[in-house]
Amino acid sequence: MAASGVKRPPRPAPASSGGMVRKLILALAVFLPALVYQQLQPPPPKICGSPGGPPVTGTRTQLKDGRHLAYLESGVPKDQAKYKIIFVHGFDSCRYDALPISPELAQELGIYQLSFDRPGYAESDPNPASTEKSIALDVEELADNLQLGPKFYLMGFSMGGEIMWSCLKHISHRLAGVAILGPVGNYWWSGLPSNVSWHAWNQQLPQDKWAVWVSHHLPWLTYWWNSQKLFPASSVIAYNPALLSEEDKLIMPKFAFRTYMPQIRQQGEYGCLHRDMTVGFGKWSWSPLELEDPFAGGEGKVHLWHGAEDLIVPVSLSRYLSEKLPWVVYHELPKSGHMFPLADGMADTIVKSLLLGDQPPQAS
């Protein structure tokens, strides 16, 4: 009992349920967007040579903007070469995946080959501002840093093949000839008839349609889409065997069991794989169908190669481009899949066609 004359303190009024609900909604309104934003953001890259990042083990050159590109030289010494070639690797690959030109052919013709890690791959610094144009300018600056001279040959495979169109657009004055191998296509390039792009689109597995659609329309969602577990993400990233043609199944062991594979994604998947997708399938301000012959004077050629049984990159876009660009020398391999450049002897066939103008029989 309270002492006489001492008043009890007033009891606090019970909080209304409505007030509690409003506070809960306010808390969720603050917390949930922050949580969603955190889930959508890719982790920062582990840049080679930085504290906590992978070590630098290869030879690198520094670009004007401060980024580094790691590169690999093969073939004859540069100062003895008659032909200088830069090779641009494909998706989930690196500088070690250069076209396997035989040493015998390299010696016979005097071929020097320069391959490099594209930004974000292996030991090349990522480029957070990469575009379809920036990689072409990287190729040109790499050639200048390595003193390849005023002109050089260029070859690119798969996603690197798509980059060849950008090089033809932006640095054609530096090119002596180009080989485009199994190039990825952008289904939204202007000038592509809807029936052509739709047919090519429907050659993909359903999960790849979604992954590509997200890369084009919602690029900020690409990292989350390819790392979440609710829906099937890119089957190319997952190495789905359903993407392999019969010939690819025989060739794939050469590619799938590379000893250097852990290096390829070591800086983080966003700066290489996901950036590749958002740029390659992004919104381009121009289309390869708008290009004019870069070698109208006859001083070089553009060769386009594609396997008719390619289950990774539909052949139909390459067919259409070659029909509409009469200056492109088109080679379709009727029994080959996506990995045809690794088939025995195929690299030498491609190189001789590019350098010597040979027109080999159209066979796998």
TrEMBL record:
Residue ranges of every copy of the AB hydrolase-1 domain listed in the record = 85-343
Signal peptide location: 1-38
- SUPFAM superfamilies under this entry? alpha/beta-Hydrolases
Q: Which domain of life is it from?
A: Eukaryota
- UniProt keywords, alphabetically: Signal
Question: What Pfam families does the database record attribute to this sequence?
Answer: Abhydrolase_6
This chain belongs to the protein called AB hydrolase-1 domain-containing protein
Organism of this sequence: Oryza rufipogon
The lineage, from the top, is: Eukaryota, Viridiplantae, Streptophyta, Embryophyta, Tracheophyta
